[in-house]
Each structure stands twice: as C-alpha cells, then as structure tokens.
Specification:
- Helices cover about 40% and strands about 15% of the residues.
- The protein has a four-stranded mixed β-sheet with strand order 2-1-3-4.
- By secondary structure, it is an alpha+beta fold.
- A hairpin with a 5-residue loop joins strand 3 and strand 4 (about 90).
Length: about 120
C-alpha cells in the first residue's frame, strides 16, 4: 500500500465479501471449518459459495459463514443450509463444483439438490 486512497479502494473491494459472511436475511449457509473440514477441502467450498452468492445477486438474501466442528467428520466438507420455517438441509462430501450447483439450484431457485444431502449419501 502506498497511500490512504489505495487502502480505501481495497476496503471497498473487500466490503461485499465481508458482508456476505456476516449479513443476510432469509437463508443462512454454514460451512464446517474445523481442522477436519479444512483438511477435507472446506476452504474452496466456502470461497465458492461466497463468490456464487455475490455472482447470483443473493447477498441481501443469503448469509454465508463458517463454523467449527459440526460433528460428522466422516462426511466433510459439510455445508448446512438454514431457512426459516423449513428443515435444515445438510450437504456432505462437498466440492467447489457441487457448491456452484447448490448455489444455483437451492439458494437461488429453492430446490434442494437431494443427491448431495446426508440423507441420500452412499459411500
């Protein structure tokens, strides 16, 4: 950084990403980021979800955040989706590619991607 103006530009650029992780109204998406989740590849999943929420214009509707241990390490990376008045949806063995589909179909269109859920997981 060479100037206060450059610092301000960086702040404005990153502001939307921080808001995506901290603010939101209707849908809360939580990515398990304990050591087991990180080791299994949760960081790219979290990053992709944040990017897709921004890309799809869902930042006022969806909050993406991280949490510690969810308690089902054998299924990591794990993503949980909470919506008011609906049952929690738990996605397991997530990848960045799966996160794109979940963002488009579930977060944007409201259709659970059932083959990625814990209820339909087959080892």
């Amino acid at each position: 950084m060479k100037s206060l103006a450059e610092l301000q530009a960086i702040k404005e650029k990153m502001k939307n990403k921080v808001v995506l992780r901290e603010g939101g109204e209707e849908i809360r998406v939580v990515v398990g980021m304990a050591t087991c989740g990180i080791a299994a590849g949760a960081r790219p999943v979290l990053n992709e979800l944040v990017e897709q929420v921004e890309k799809l214009g869902l930042s006022g509707k969806v909050m993406v955040s991280q949490t510690g241990c969810i308690g089902i390490c054998q299924y990591e990376p794990v993503v949980e989706v909470f919506e008011a008045g609906k049952d929690k949806v738990t996605y397991v063995k997530m990848t960045a590619e799966k996160a794109v589909r979940v963002a488009e179909e579930h977060l944007k269109d409201g259709k659970v991607v059932s083959e990625y859920t814990i209820a339909n997981y087959q080892a």
